[in-house]
């Protein structure tokens, strides 16, 4: 007879006994269980106290000039008041004078149209270049980034000097290209800043060229955060490049696009330096005023300038309320 087989599995030691759960004392009837301890007032105020050193300079630097401008808009304040004459309170007279002037409404209309056109073109070109940077190789991408940084980092006045040379009526490269290679001989001595239509065309080219780098870098940084797994899954499902961009990439970076569009609307509405330099180069001032340069032309009448600046602030809020509501919905 063969010997009985024995199991080779090791014998495990008995498990240690579990610790007994602490007894749960029932709450006597008529009594309430003690509520959790609330955070102390110091812990709740801690974040606000940390923000206080940064909020105070911002409130003083931005709040005081805004309040001073608002008060001046209800007074008669000119050069005489700068030398000690008390300001006279005139109420809404400055606002009624401005808003009853058809020329002021023309300036407002030109400014809003210029702002919306420039913001739309800047966003379109910026998104296109940002998408291009995600598709090209490393060498081409670095070249684009360096070029955009140089365009963005160049001082505004230096940039304006270069653009004035390019659009010069006698020696400008733009007129030479249109007259010689393209055969448009009528553009040989064309003055771009004399006519209001061509003036705003030049101003649009300059403003968009100077604003595109910010949009490109911001949107490009957002596109880099789109998960590769989502893009690969959409590609396996048959979505082409345009469908992946439209239905996947752009919706994922929508908060970034809203913030950038909001900033572009604000910046393009209050554009000043580009318009002022072109006006000083020989453009008709009255026909080419936007809100920024028109407020500057009212510098001798502080009260009128303050009222016009307040109107500009209201217009900015009206134009941006849509984006502000969308961003608030995104945060909820």
From TrEMBL:
It is found in: Cell membrane. Residues 108-323 form the ABC transmembrane type-1 domain. The chain crosses the membrane at residues 45-67, 111-134, 146-166, 197-224, 245-267, 302-324. Keywords: Cell membrane, Membrane, Transmembrane, Transmembrane helix, Transport. It is a multi-pass membrane protein. It comes from Blastococcus carthaginiensis. It comes from the Bacteria. SUPFAM superfamilies: MetI-like. Residues 11-29 have a biased composition (Pro residues). This is Sugar ABC transporter permease. InterPro entries: MetI-like, MetI-like_sf, UgpAE/MalFG_permease. The keyword Transmembrane helix applies. PANTHER family: BLL4140 PROTEIN, DIACETYLCHITOBIOSE UPTAKE SYSTEM PERMEASE PROTEIN DASB. Pfam families: BPD_transp_1 (PF00528). Belongs to the binding-protein-dependent transport system permease family. PROSITE patterns: ABC_TM1. Gene3D superfamilies: MetI-like. Residues 1-40 are annotated as: Disordered. The lineage of its organism: Bacteria, Bacillati, Actinomycetota, Actinomycetes, Geodermatophilales.
